Amino acid sequence: MTKSDRITLYYSPQTRATGTRVLLEELGAPYDLHVLNMKAGEQRQPAYLAVNPLGKVPAIRHGEALVTEQVAIYIYLADLFPEAGLTPALDDARRGPYLRWIAYYGASFEPALIDKFMNHEPAPVTQSPYSDYESMLGALEAQLCRGPYLLGDHMTAADILWGIAFSWTMMFGLVPKKDVFARYAERITSRPAFQRINAADDEMAGRHAAAAGV
User: Fold this and answer.
1) Given a cut of 80, is residue 121 above it in pLDDT?
2) Sheet strands (E) in the chain
3) Burial profile 169-183: b = 16 or more Cβ within 10 angstroms, e = fewer
4) Looking at beta carbons, which pairs linking 140-144 to residues 24 or more positions away fall under 8 Å?
5) I need a labelling partner for 40 at 20 to 30 A (CA). Which of 6, 56, 88, 210 fits?
6) What angle is formed at CA 32 by the lines to CA 26 and CA 34, rounded to 5 degrees?
7) Could you tell me what percent of the chain has a pLDDT over 70?
8) What domains lie within the chain, and their CATH numbers?
9) Sorting pLDDT into bands at 50, 70 and 90, what band is 5?
10) 119/122 Cα distance (integer angstroms)
């Protein structure tokens, strides 16, 4: 496997895979889309379950490497293209905080978000993976107040992950539209890469809905 191998992104529009596609654009990475119509249930068919048994996107294939899980994909891709400047090097003092905030997304933010969305009673603080919703979000707010990005003045792949997540979750009322969150999301969603992919997603989602008879 070489860096020049094209990356295959298993993709469906207006899903968590959108952020991965934006990251690929920001990295200038060579990639191809393997598009799944999730409105037609293609992600639950045997062909894709052989790629990801959970039937979730994104997933990527790079040479012989198959990577699922959004957080792992971001780390893998940003490290694969260090010249893009979106990942701190292993000997950079920012590397630890960078990994912390990427892991925080999958380990704390998403579980808290799902509990809130489903109106689930959260686990006791001593057993919850995210303590409690307010504390989880408060830690993010405190970090972003140091801004303009998670690690200060320099944007990383973590900011693409979080900026797009904040944009979506504020849109659906899962995260309050505080100025610090709104300004942060705008820094990412106003970038040309996001604008291109967002427009392409709108068009693709319309085609998928029509094909699925939705």
Assistant:
1) yes
2) 7-11, 31-35, 59-62, 65-68
3) bbeeebbeeeeebee
4) 140/104, 140/109, 141/178, 141/180, 141/181, 143/101, 144/180, 144/181, 144/184
5) 6
6) 120
7) 98
8) 7-85+196-211 (3.40.30.10), 95-192 (1.20.1050.10)
9) confident
10) 9
Q: Which two tokens stand for residue 11?
A: 């993709």
Long-range (24+ apart) CB contacts under 8 A made by 81-90 are 81/3, 81/27, 81/28, 81/29, 84/26, 84/27, 84/28, 85/154, 86/23, 86/26, 86/27, 86/155, 86/156, 86/157, 86/160, 87/156, 87/157, 88/151, 88/156
The average pLDDT across 12-32 equals 97
Phi, psi (degrees; rounded to nearest 5) at 65: -90, 125
Cα 90 to chain centroid distance, Å, stands at 22
Token pair listed for 189: 């969603």
Mean pLDDT, residues 165-185? 96
Q: What is the pLDDT of residue 3?
A: 62
Provide mean pLDDT across the span 168-176.
95
Question: Cα separation of 158 and 150, whole Å?
Answer: 8
Q: DSSP secondary structure string, 175-210?
A: S---HHHHHHHHHHHTSHHHHHHHHHHHHHHHHHHH
For the chain, give the mean pLDDT. 95
Q: How far is CA 114 from the centre of its chain?
A: 15
213: confidence class by pLDDT, cuts 50, 70, 90: confident
81, two tokens: 């293209």
**131: helix, coil or strand?**
coil
